[in-house]
Amino acid sequence: MRKLLTTLAMAAALAGPAMADETWKTDFGTIEWEKDYDGGAIFRVELEKGKFARFYIEGLRPEGARGNYTGFYINTADEQMCASTLIGPDGTSSRTWGRLSLTFVDKGFPSDWTMLTGECMGEPGEVLTGKANVG
Q: How far apart are CA 100 and CA 128, in angstroms?
């Protein structure tokens, strides 16, 4: 996760405004709700030179109540962290990935959140917070 956080910090100055319906400000740039997939939602943050990280939030739906969720992330900016490659439901793949736990502060839209992430199969423990962009 340290590699992901370092990469996100470097990308913060390069990140442009997101065009998604729901976005959050973080210390590392803007994370957007990119799209839904059959099992939940995909959040995305742009990293350096066309690289990105995607966060797969299992069970999260746009019309659903906000609460606690689990999932995983895949970071395409660094290919060295894990021993195996993880492929997301949208085809994104990398050897830099990990588990996550996401908790929304409020039950409705918009809501800030706190995300815990881990490296590879490690327990999530690194903290990332998102403040909802409103208006």
A: 10
Distance CA(113)–CA(77), nearest Å, equals 24
User: What is the model's pLDDT at position 2?
Assistant: 56
Average pLDDT of the chain to the nearest whole number: 86
- HSE value, Cβ hemisphere, 13 Å, CA-based, for 21: 8
For CA atoms 110, 101, 72, 76, give the dihedral sign.
Answer: positive
> Residue type for 69, please?
Y
Angle at the Cα of 54 from the Cα atoms of 52 and 58, rounded to 5 degrees: 180
Pairing of strands 23-26, 126-132: antiparallel
* Cis-peptide into 110, omega within 30 deg: yes
For 135, how many CA atoms within 13 A lie in the half-sphere containing its CB?
A: 0
Check whether 19 has a pLDDT greater than 60: no
pLDDT of 17 above 80: no
Q: Mean pLDDT across the stretch 82-92?
A: 96
